[in-house]
């Protein structure tokens, strides 16, 4: 992943309960770190994410997660989570993320998450709304593939 294509970043400090018996962040916690990045990205773009929108307007489900672990994170380490939407298809969109050590920029992990937009009444795949496409296009510019 090319860091220069990421326009949004958030920060997170590793907490003591996220550490495993080896003294490093347990692998499952990276899923939560990427989720924090995705939610903050959407909020930054002005997308409303709350129980009302999720249940009534914009039901979106995660269908696949891929993580590449590069280097362990440790207790109290400040992390930078870079997040972007790289692709919007007919019924799906793709988030990419990079977790870095904030102080050095060393890559801790990178990942891709695939989401599908559902009709909230039928739970069947439906087209990604045009207003969402426009919000992402406006922010990402030429760094997003929109079909």
Strand content: 35-45%
Number of strands: 6
The pLDDT mean sits at: 93
Q: What is the helix/strand order?
A: EHHEEEEHE
Report the principal-axis shape. Answer: globular
Radius of gyration: 16 Å
Distance between the termini: 21 Å
Structural class: alpha+beta
What composes the largest sheet?
A: 6 strands, mixed
Ranges where pLDDT stays below 50 over 5 or more residues in a row are none
Number of helices: 3
Helix content: 10-25%
Structural overview:
The protein starts with 7 loop residues before the first strand and ends with a strand. Strand 3 and strand 4 form a beta hairpin. It is an alpha+beta fold and 147 residues long. The model has no long low-confidence stretch (mean pLDDT 93). Strands 1, 2, 3, 4, 5 and 6 form a six-stranded mixed sheet that branches.
Layout of helices and strands:
Elements (H helix, E strand, L loop, with lengths): L7 E6 L15 H16 L6 H7 L1 E11 L8 E11 L3 E10 L5 E12 L11 H11 L4 E2 L1
Parallel strand pairs: 3-6
Antiparallel strand pairs: 1-3, 2-5, 3-4, 4-5
């Amino acid at each position: 992943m090319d860091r220069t294509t990421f326009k949004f970043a958030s920060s997170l400090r590793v907490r003591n309960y996220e550490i495993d018996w080896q003294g490093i962040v347990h692998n499952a916690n990276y899923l939560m770190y990427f989720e924090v990045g995705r939610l903050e990205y959407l909020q930054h773009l002005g997308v409303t994410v709350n129980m009302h929108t999720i249940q009534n307007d914009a039901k979106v489900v995660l269908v696949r997660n891929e993580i590449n672990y590069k280097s362990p994170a440790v207790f109290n380490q400040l992390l930078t989570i870079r997040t972007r939407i790289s692709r919007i298809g007919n019924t799906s969109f793709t988030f990419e993320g990079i977790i870095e050590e904030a102080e050095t920029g060393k890559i801790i992990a990178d990942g891709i998450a695939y989401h599908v937009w559902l009709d909230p009444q039928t739970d069947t795949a439906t087209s990604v709304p045009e207003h969402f496409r426009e919000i992402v296009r406006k922010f990402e510019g030429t760094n997003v593939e929109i079909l």
